[in-house]
Amino acid sequence: MTGLERALRMRRDRGEVGLVPYLTAGFPDEPTSLALMQACVARGCEVIEVGVPFSDPVADGPVIQRAGQRALEQGMTLRRALHLVREVVAAGGRPVIMTYLNPVLRLGFAEFATAARAAGCAGVIVPDLSHEESGDLRRALAGEGLPLVDLVAPTTTPERLGRIAGPAAGFLYLVAVAGVTGTRSATFADLAALAARVREHTDVPLNIGFGIDGPDRAREAARVADGVIVGSALLRRLLEAPTTATGVEATLALIDELLAALMDPARRTHS
Amino acid sequence: MPGDTTLTRRPGRFGRHGGQYVPETLMPALAELARAHTEALADPGFAADLDVLLRDFAGRPTPLDRARRLEAALDSPAPIYLKREDLLHTGAHKLNNTIGQVLLARRMGKRRIIAETGAGQHGVATAAVCARFGLECIVYMGETDMQRQRPNVQRMHLFGAEVRPARTGRRTLQDATSEAIRDWVANVETTYYVIGSAVGPHPYPELVAGFQTVIGGEARAQILDAEGRLPSHAVACVGGGSNALGLFRGFLDDPEVALVGVEAGGSADGHARTLGLGDPGVLHGAMSLLLQDEDGQVAPVHSVSAGLDYPGVGPQLAHLVDTFRLVAAAATDAEALAAFADLCRLEGILPALETAHAIAHLRALVREPDVRLVVVNCSGRGDKDLDHLPEEVTP
Fold first, then answer.
1. pLDDT tens for residues B142-155?
2. Which ipTM value was assigned to this complex?
3. Which residue from B182, B283, B297 is facing A72, i.e. has the nearest CB?
4. Hey, are the CB atoms on B282 and A106 less than 8 Å from each other?
């Protein structure tokens, strides 16, 4: 079992639900993105998703697209993101890299796995890498003791679910809505049904993402999952703020609201 | 490496290229599409419906037309024949594919159709077939392309389609394709995505090329009829590659026929020579050749023609280059514009700027040894380009 999975299982055993922030590396600029990640760790977020920007992010909605475009304009790359990963580890967090496949392919799977391991990366998520095509990268990462985190979606058939969830490592990423990031909210019924279907196949920790737009949705997701991933809602605060400083303030305020929602004892009241 | 063998044997692979690189949300839909496609191909009723539409609605077969004045102007030792896809309804080869795919969508019970378009020809072809069947049609088009291909935007509107501008990136085909994929992810259960070129995740490259193979099938029979022999060269322009594959697949099993794909050589502003200069990469669902920077970001490309202005290329064409079956050539913006004017003046044929790239390459090709008989895919007509021609082309 990887360190990531062990940590998430321990958190679950303590009855806690983790908040997993997704932040785009290099947005609004490199030092600010790192400072935000460090501030999240200081507030008690253990896993941080370090988003590597890509020119054609087909799984992402307008907010993460815009954040990524700004980060690319300022020269963010997969290699630079690994530098942020190292700093997040130094701050005590467990950074998970979220990247589209092509930058990894360009670097080379073996070289990427070695560099990710050396930086202290805890796991890797590649939203455009289907389970069917994932063998080579999964093996390269496993060789360095790193999990490739799989995603399952509301459209995933029972047969696929068994194939994907059975051997899952690290955690499973539950895509809450059929859609791209940050564009619509999942209903509680959708979340509960998806989580229940997945639990039939695996007991690895489940983190829910896509469409978690604030404390109310986070509270609902926490009733059925072990962790809640929030990305677009955080980045939207940065995008809409008049200055970087007010953007950081607004983003951290949302982090605090989300953490408070997840600590709410009422959330464990199962319907 | 044992992993490589498994990859090559999986359906949807062309050597190292192809595959299915999409978000998990779409994977079940691709499986459903592959199943429906296989079933349709085995159903004689589907082939019969397709044939009737290709004949009565689209106007097939298209002629194979000898370009004698062009031959003379190029001082060509070889006869040059044009496969006149420009005469197809809606003005380009694109309709062959959209008829096939919309028939497939109907079989699958999908009533909402989406498409991406670059030059607008695929958008127009999709909109026309949707009008024919009373289906909702939404076409994503880069904002830059909407400006440079305005007549096609008007035609889509007239056919009842909604045209949604893609405003990210360079606002061209690449961005329109990403937007269409996002729409599909969000509406996958009700929506059929009609991809316009032989690109994207399996089964699209095979599906699109399959519907376009009618071009090469007809051309092969027609050239044998006209000349009693196979061509020494088959030539087509290459953006994503559907008109090229459509022609080439008629001659794949004829090793004596050289296949020549002509890409956009562009200008000082850049190019779109994916087959010639790209490296292996993943974009829009498939492994193929890709123009990219050293960090794996997709590179900005440029072409005067919106239809060739794309950093990727279909996986089967990439494989044909890998295996030396296909020769990748290029024509610059200026050469394409000159060929555009030549074909108008010499043959009374107004080609699309995309097509003009294939015509432009003939000037160099006919000087090569062993060029004995040439078939060029005249893939589309150029009315759409008239608004944006440089002054030197329009006297």
1. 999 999 899 999 99
2. 0.95
3. B297
4. no
